[in-house]
Amino acid sequence: MSQILKGNVVAAKLKEEMKERIAKLNENGKQPKLGIVRLGNDPSDVSYEKSIIKNCDALGIETEVFEKDANMTTDELADFISELNDNDSISAMIMFRPLPKHIDEEVIRNTIKPSKDVDCMHPLNLEKIFEGDMSGFAPATPKAAMEILLYNNIDLEGKNVVVINRSMVVGKPLAMMLLEKNATVTICHSRTKDLKEITKKADIVIPALGKPKFFTMDYFTEESIIIDVGVSMTEDGKLSGDVDYENVADKVKMITPVPGGVGSVTTTILLNQVVYACENN
Q: Is this model's pTM higher than 0.85 or not?
């Protein structure tokens, strides 16, 4: 029987640690506060926003939502971000993406203050990760995957890890985090040849293709450890990971469920970085 690596226990541990750190900050007259920048009223953004606020309230992190016109120009948005950079009451900020197509995201990425950039938009924060410096902010999803591995005492040293994603949001920073722990990392993607043979030889497989139930048991062995980062909807409208969980879960060594796995830790990672920003700003 597989060991199910649930994200809620990892998130709960991180939250308890955060509460202690927030209490200490409050004793020293500091209050963590997250600025949330949203352009327009996309339903998925509004839903995620409500989830963030609910989690912040439970921990004692203040929030302020800045709803802006989706038609504002790049210069107008950059000027507003500069105002938040200079606002000492805002410990950190996030901005829902993708931004409207007429916004030059490169300009915005370079405008946000690195020390407030908990969503790791600024190139300097990504650069630190690629230099092996894990002391700053990291993209929340790969960091969540790492936290699950570390919480469950999964030894990464010398292990063969296959990451199936090559984006700057997940795959590449995750590969750097794994290398920092002395894992041997292979990055694969949708066009990789002989993917089944590569994943079968791995100790740990981290799929993040966004294709529901794509990975069957043909891609794994009984010793496989699977951290499923993929999240998408099946044809019948159900949330699913990249792995065919029902047919794989009882045949591998360890696996994260979807929902209830990496996604359960992602928001907590974001808030943990808000607390870190308050401690260091």
A: yes
